[in-house]
Amino acid sequence: xxxxRICIVxxxxxxxxxxxxLRGQTLATIGVDAHAATRQQALADGTVxxxxxxxxxxVSTADLVIxxxxxxxxxxxxxxxxxxxxxxxxVLDFGSTKQAINAAMSALPxxxxxxxxxxxxxxxxxxxQSADARLxxxxxxxxxxxxxxxxxxxxxxxxxLDQLGAQPLFLEAAQHDELVAAVSHLPYLLAAMLMRQAAxxxxxxxxxxxxxxFRDTSRLAGSDPRMMLDILLxxxxxxxxxxxxxxxxLDQLVALLHEGDEQALVTWLAEAQQGHVAYRRHKxxxxx
Amino acid sequence: xxxxRICIVxxxxxxxxxxxxLRGQTLATIGVDAHAATRQQALADGTVxxxxxxxxxxVSTADLVIxxxxxxxxxxxxxxxxxxxxxxxxVLDFGSTKQAINAAMSALPxxxxxxxxxxxxxxxxxxxQSADARLxxxxxxxxxxxxxxxxxxxxxxxxxLDQLGAQPLFLEAAQHDELVAAVSHLPYLLAAMLMRQAAxxxxxxxxxxxxxxFRDTSRLAGSDPRMMLDILLxxxxxxxxxxxxxxxxLDQLVALLHEGDEQALVTWLAEAQQGHVAYRRHKxxxxx
Lengths: 288, 288
What we know:
In chain A, about 55% of the residues lie in helices and about 15% in strands.
């Protein structure tokens, strides 16, 4: 049970899943969403107690405001909060990059206590209709402290993660952004490039001949472009660094293939397989 | 029912799945495999009627020989067949690239009738223990004709695909190799590069923070390096062409990110998403 009135701003995949996971576990859940159909559905299925398209109304009586929109909108909301909620409250966000958001949280008046969050889970489909109350279960949830982080907001949010079944992982915002560039933003861009290249053939046979390997490698290309734009622009330095390293790896691979040195090539491929083994080992028995 | 004695050379993922799918549907199934444990298991579970590590013995009484080993071993086997099976027989292979194999099939004596095959399915785990009798069900199975292809072998193999529930797709060998470079070999190399880059951080946090997007995009990195080496070396021209195009796309993306032109970037990302939509549309209702 969360002894708080919670206002969730954005009832998309993340906010909707959160609201569903907390059903009946809060003093009240208030949903803020621009789409009338989403508000109606969340009210109709009992996921929220109150729904509005006006953020000022939504946050007015909340103890904890959770911002679950794309990064750019989270930054807009943080800029607005001091005016629309002058008494202050607790704030958590679900943004995919953390440095810009943490700076904005640190700039909030001292009446606010705030902590950055990023649930390490998702789907390539967006929106309330894709929401899933068990989305966060067993998943890593990154928390990033800033100058407005208090023990009170930390305790409240850890209690919330406990309700969701998520595993908290405290990281510096810069460290988070660098790691997600490697394991989230780079994979997205590779998938997008792969999909553009296959689609540019304009040949149905390319789909016909494609199997599960292509399906999985290209899956992230289906992500929402606006959401991904926000992520890339607020994590540009780390993403460009990952792409530069990737380009070097690509050049190295092309040289190996041109030379046709079988031993060097098979070693290179085996190192990738060993990486996969190490990764699977971690996922099968995570470090505590 | 297949009115033939079938010899399957290689009881790995592909050959093992084939043998299991055909259980009780042939006049006899003979398995050839170098591993004693695999032969014993396939005999014990009733998947094959006879098992040997000697290809000459295995093919001696077979009407149809199916070569289900890595490409290099298929080429070795095709070179050997005229000596060990002088009377000739029908031949099908399951190799991942088709031009070198089709040339070798065309060079067989006229006592042989042969057709190239490539089931467009798989797993990143190899071996008989990963075999699955339903692996081919509903999947595309490419067939490539060569100078030894007769109506008889074509009919026999189409009957076999019917038993497996696979969908035949006739392609020229060169066309096949170009298409799989785009939807199979390129995705594998992207996954391998991604995995090498993530693993090179030597930081358990990189695994801890990774979610389903990384899991799927990097999955193919777990593929067997020896098998992939064969594939890359027998499809070098097409693979290098795909990598060159990919490198251009990467340079284009890096330039867009550097410039930070939001409209151009979001258009670029949206085109990738549209490609994904077209792909999913095809897979959800395939062209007949």
